[in-house]
Amino acid sequence: MLGRHRFQIKTPDQIRAMRRAGLVVAEGLEAMSAVAVPGATTADIDRAGRKVLERHNARSNFLNYGGDWGLPPYPGVACVSPNETIVHGIPGERELKDGDVVSIDYGAIVDGWHGDAARTVLVGDVSEEARVLSEVTREAMWAGIAKVAPGNRIGDISAAVQASLESHDRDYGIIREYTGHGIGTEMHMDPDVPNWGRAGRGPKIVEGMVLCIEPMATLGTEDTATLDDEWTVVTVDSSWASHWENTVAVTNKGLWVLSEPDGGRAELEKRGVPCGALD
């Protein structure tokens, strides 16, 4: 059903259905991460994601996306974004090298319900700077997830992501142009969930909401450019980027991170947040 703000509010059974899609996403990301080694191409990573979808008889919510908006239909089941590519990297013949990082964004549809998540993978022996970039982006994601609670507002998530990224000794570029989002019977739904903002602002979070929290950060500035393929988004200053994302449901027991194999329990417990798994 849709709430008065036109947000899709899910029943417990619908959230359980979304969990099935989330588990396919988690398995696909694990399979693709294993393929992300020196010498592999970004197309090799995409192929691994396709095999997982086929094994579960799931559909891709990325493949052919964008045509309704006048964009070229997206040709992959995953966005595979190495180094200076922030997001929406089209899989192809680009070969990964030792020391690269690659962000993999991936989704699945099971019985009409969507899942969506992203991971930054370290390829071979990476620099400490690149490793820390990925870790601080991941930590910012979890800082935002920890603020997903009934009665809080979307701005509380945004402020927590921003504060986490700004809490370090060096400056990171916080990508503002691309945001998290609601998810359910479509991949991108209201509300938008920015990665920066002020606490106490925005729509109120209620039980039954399902949100994607997805910070993107760079080693340089927040300035972006889109390549001629109309999809690939890169840093203007060629600095490297990281992208982490999870699908999170608000249940009557707490939070259920649908795209984590353990439902997010380990990370939530570290932060004193109840895990609201319904399985």
TrEMBL record:
The keyword RNA-binding does not apply. GO terms for cellular component: cytosol. A divalent metal cation 2 binds at residues 116, 181, 214, 245. Belongs to the peptidase M24A family. Methionine aminopeptidase type 1 subfamily. Removes the N-terminal methionine from nascent proteins. The N-terminal methionine is often cleaved when the second residue in the primary sequence is small and uncharged (Met-Ala-, Cys, Gly, Pro, Ser, Thr, or Val). Requires deformylation of the N(alpha)-formylated initiator methionine before it can be hydrolyzed. Monomer. This is Methionine aminopeptidase.
